[in-house]
Amino acid sequence: MKRIILPLFLLLFLVLEGIFPELVPRKLNGSEIYIIPYFVMSFLILMAIFYDYDQTYQSIYYAIVFGFLTDLLYTDLIGVYMFTYGAVAYFVHKFKRVLHANFFVTFILTLFGVSLSDTLIYMMYAVIQITSMAPVEYGMTRLLPTVLANMITMAVLYPLFYRRMWKWSEELMSHRKTV
């Protein structure tokens, strides 16, 4: 049962990513804004920091799988989110080796991860000309609101999951040692 918990939460967040844009206003002070929810990415960052050990890569595996599912469900181009989620989970996994796992570091890595994810996706779409948004417009109307909204998401997810992730990780390691 415990092996199903993380994928179920990731699946829930994947569904919520599809619902969220319908609940958020598209205009702020008369100008159009785009808030892209990265609930799955935020949870994967928590996994990379608090669940994975140096020698385990569960967050990266889940990032690739759920990035692919995001591509299938929400985009027209397969592989963009799969690559981006996998790369960001890998970088966060590597950075956590030199940083202490705490609230501040989690927020910095979330800021880095969400910014990198959204920028990579924008750049890939710009290169293949799916988007025509200018970089300055992208930064003001999409990147900034997206990062702020996802930092709020992390403020909600962090207290709910960081202790549980440690506990689940220790249970997984103790189970592997006994088998």
Name some characteristics of this structure.
179 residues, mainly alpha, Arp2/3 complex 21 kDa subunit ARPC3, 77% helix, globular
Provide a descriptive summary of the structure in words.
It is a single chain. The protein has 179 residues and is mainly α. It has one domain (2-178): Arp2/3 complex 21 kDa subunit ARPC3 (Orthogonal Bundle). It is 77% helix and 2% strand. It has 6 helices and 2 strands; from the N terminus they run H-E-E-H-H-H-H-H. Strands 1-2 form a two-stranded antiparallel ribbon. A hairpin with a 2-residue loop joins strand 1 and strand 2 (31-32). Helix 4 runs antiparallel to helix 5. The longest helix has 44 residues, at 135-178. The model has no long low-confidence stretch (mean pLDDT 89). It is found in: Cell membrane.
Biggest sheet statistics: 2 strands, antiparallel
Compute the number of helices.
6
Poorly predicted regions are none
Here the CATH topology equals: Arp2/3 complex 21 kDa subunit ARPC3
Radius of gyration: 17 Å
Amount of beta strand:
under 5%
Topology order in helix (H) and strand (E) letters: HEEHHHHH
Which term fits the overall shape?
globular
Named CATH architecture: Orthogonal Bundle
Oligomeric state of shown chains: single chain
How many beta-strand segments?
Answer: 2
* Intertermini distance: 17 Å
Structural category: mainly alpha
How many domains, in number, for the residues?
Answer: 1
Summarize the structure.
The protein is mostly helical and 179 residues long. The chain has helices at 2-23, 39-51, 58-74, 80-95, 103-127, 135-178, and strands at residues 27-28, 31-32.
